[in-house]
Write a structure and sequence with these properties.
The chain is of the alpha+beta class. Helices cover about 35% and strands about 30% of the residues. It is built from three helices and four strands, in the order H-H-E-E-E-E-H. Strand 2 and strand 3 form a beta hairpin. Helix 1 (about 5-20) packs antiparallel against helix 2. The chain is rod-shaped and about 95 Å long. The relative contact order is 0.21.
């Protein structure tokens, strides 16, 4: 959230907390409307993204290379390579039409 917008919200909250309780509750309605608008503008796309073990690889033996050490003796040298490892999971969540579906209520100020 930009610093100017954050300062505006903090200033409004301080002004609302210093006033006497408004029987209609218009101050909290204004604050919730302003905060709701800021939330709608600043919701990231996607709103939730998780990559559990995504891209994890492990060094494993992929083969053997035999080298002659003496007249009768051979030495096996393992060949290593990176291979995919684990159960890769990717989750992505978005908010569909936040202007219609997002509700914000501020109470007990």
């Amino acid at each position: 959230m930009p610093r100017a917008a954050f300062a505006l919200v903090v200033g409004m909250a301080a002004a609302l907390s210093g006033r006497a309780a408004d029987p209609v509750g218009s101050g909290t309605k204004v604050l919730s409307t302003v905060l709701r608008g800021m939330l709608i503008e600043n919701i990231p796309t996607p709103a939730l993204e998780s990559k559990l073990d995504w891209g994890r690889q492990k060094s494993v033996t992929t083969g053997l290379t035999f080298r002659k050490v003496g007249p009768v003796r051979w030495n096996a040298v393992p060949q290593k390579g990176m291979r995919n490892d684990g159960h890769w999971q990717k989750f992505r969540g978005t908010v569909e039409d936040p202007a219609k579906s997002l509700m914000l209520a501020i109470t007990d100020v």
